[in-house]
Amino acid sequence: MTNAAATMDPAQHGAVAHSDGGWDRKIPVQTRSDRFTSTDVADFPQVTGREATWKFAPIAKFQGLLDGALDGSRLPVSVTEVAGVSSEWIARDDARIGRAGTPEERGAANAWTAFDEAHLVTISGDETVTAIVRRDALDHAERAAHTVIEAAPQSQGLVILENAGDANLTENVEIVVGDGAKLTVVSVQQWDDEAIHLASHYATVGRDASLTHIVVSLGGSVVRLNPSIHLDHEGANGEALGAYFADAGQHLEHQVYMDHDAPHTRSRVTYKGALQGEGAHTVWIGDVLIRQNADGTDSYEQNRNLVLTEGTRADSIPNLEIETGNIEGAGHASATGRFDDEHIFYLQSRGISAEEARKLVVRGFLFEVIAQIGDAATEERLHEAVEAELAASVRS
């Protein structure tokens, strides 16, 4: 089965061939859950840039990660040594791989095809533990990686993936949250200016368990991080939060999928971004699916973008599919705009300069997400990084 066969259905909507001909009655699949999936890159056609999942991305900058042979050896990585956290490398045929999701596009499939071993981080025990997984010794060679993060039933933990330095990386990250567990996973992208990072995160959340997934993207030439959170057990809770700051020439993209596939599940999605400089481009696509069996679902998603200068572009597309009417609530919102003149005027009336007023607005806008991380040192470091971005240029 090929991707093209899976995403084109001539029977949809009672379609018939147009009198002009030539389009073969092909209509893209409309339902998010019907996308073709495979762990084999050969099952996906070449990316043209016209596909829905790739149409905003600068494909020429990372073509090798989609089509080329990748180095799938172990990445240089360090992990905090603390009780309740274990770290090991496991073979690609280990049964603990493949539980959270399957690639839906060629970049993730190429990473899955190429990796030799997966890095497994396990959280255990009922006391809250923090594990910092740091990757800052890569180079610009094209690489693949696979990470599995598992929270044992009833455990509590915070896992921070810190990404810095150079990279030319495509990867898959699986997150498995056991019944009754509470897990926060934070992925921080502070790459060097020329770094390329494609990442697909997949999560499965157990019965009465909770996952908070936080993305902070600041550095890198291209960062494309797409989390898919599957609430496939009754009472599961999922929160997806994101903060990003795009400078001139940067492309920061986040495609979020929240899948309600069990009764009485809850989700919240909040992504907030700022853009400044010629050619700064951000993309946010939020898909929420409430399946027929997901009675009692409570869901809401939103994306807000703050444009600081001319020459930027923010694409924001929320999507909501509801297959049952028996829900607690569901909604979505999206907004992109410049500074609120009333906010700036109020701050200036208190003796604050216009430039400092703008900085205060941006700080408050992004720090609302960063403050949810729960690790003081990481939050402080990210506050400083945002301050550095603001010091570079904040103009009306």
From TrEMBL:
It comes from the Bacteria. Residues 144-365 form the SUF system FeS cluster assembly SufBD core domain. Residues 21-30 have a biased composition (Basic and acidic residues). InterPro entries: Fe-S_cluster_assembly_SufBD, SUF_FeS_clus_asmbl_SufBD_core, SUF_FeS_clus_asmbl_SufBD_sf, SUF_FeS_clus_asmbl_SufD. Residues 1-30 are annotated as: Disordered. Belongs to the iron-sulfur cluster assembly SufBD family. This is Fe-S cluster assembly protein SufD. It comes from Leucobacter iarius. The lineage of its organism: Bacteria, Bacillati, Actinomycetota, Actinomycetes, Micrococcales. The gene is sufD.
